[in-house]
């Protein structure tokens, strides 16, 4: 486990996710084609109050935060909901690293979620349009990775 103190903002009392992504890029072993960090800290980027995660578009690193996936759901006592949300957010961020952008379909994994209810509302699947994009991106990735 790596300490992420370097990304802490005392003014915001949150961690700046972009700074962590830069560090992750350095830490990624050559044998891994993507690196995903999971943090229990509250993350932000300067233009937003918080983020559930962040990814480098067409890059190698992404991160998700469990902080708001766990803490902001008084109506939910159901076990497993945090796991479901985390899986959705992790796949969403990994999608960005493969070049996928936000999707207007509210049930698609690539839909941008402002509120936790948006996360709960979307399914754990990519829509048909995003699936096509993803398949192409993975194929390209496979070709470039195997030719190294
Ligand atoms: Zn996104
Ligand atoms: Zn989609």
Taking pLDDT < 50 over at least 5 consecutive residues as the criterion, the unreliable ranges are none
Q: Please count the beta strands (DSSP E, at least 2 residues each).
A: 6
Q: Give the SSE string.
A: EEHEEEEHHHH
Placed side by side, the strands forming the largest sheet appear as: 1-2-4
CATH superfamily: Collagenase (Catalytic Domain)
User: Beta-strand level of the residues, as a percent range?
Assistant: 5-15%
Class inferred from helices and paired strands: alpha/beta
- The first-level CATH class name: Alpha Beta
User: Architecture in CATH?
Assistant: 3-Layer(aba) Sandwich
* Tally of helical runs: 5
Are any ligands bound, and if so which? zinc ion
| Shape field | globular
- Report the radius of gyration as a whole number of Å: 16 Å
Largest sheet: 3 strands, mixed
- Quaternary structure annotation: single chain
- CATH topology: the name is Collagenase (Catalytic Domain)
Describe the fold and architecture.
The chain has 148 residues and is of the alpha/beta class. The chain has one domain: Collagenase (Catalytic Domain), CATH 3.40.390.10. Helices cover 39% and strands 14% of the residues. It contains five helices and six strands; from the N terminus they run ββαββββαααα. The chain has a three-stranded mixed β-sheet with strand order 1-2-4. The longest helix is centred in the last third of the chain and has 19 residues, at 128-146. 28% of the residues are buried. The structure holds zinc ion (2 copies). One zinc ion (ZN) binds next to α5.
């Amino acid at each position: 486990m790596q300490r992420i103190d370097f990304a802490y903002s005392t003014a915001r009392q949150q961690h700046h996710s972009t700074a962590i992504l830069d560090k992750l890029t350095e830490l990624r072993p050559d044998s891994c084609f993507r690196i995903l960090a999971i943090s229990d800290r509250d993350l932000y980027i300067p233009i937003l109050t918080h983020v559930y995660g962040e990814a480098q578009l067409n890059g190698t690193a992404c991160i998700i935060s469990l902080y708001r996936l766990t803490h902001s759901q008084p109506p939910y006592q159901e076990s497993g909901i945090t796991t479901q949300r985390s899986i959705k957010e992790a796949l969403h961020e990994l999608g960005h690293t493969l070049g996928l952008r936000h999707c207007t379909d509210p049930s698609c994994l690539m839909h941008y979620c402002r509120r936790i209810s948006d996360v709960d509302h979307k399914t754990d699947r990519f829509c048909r349009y995003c699936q096509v994009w993803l398949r192409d991106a993975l194929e390209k990735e496979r070709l470039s990775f195997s030719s190294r």
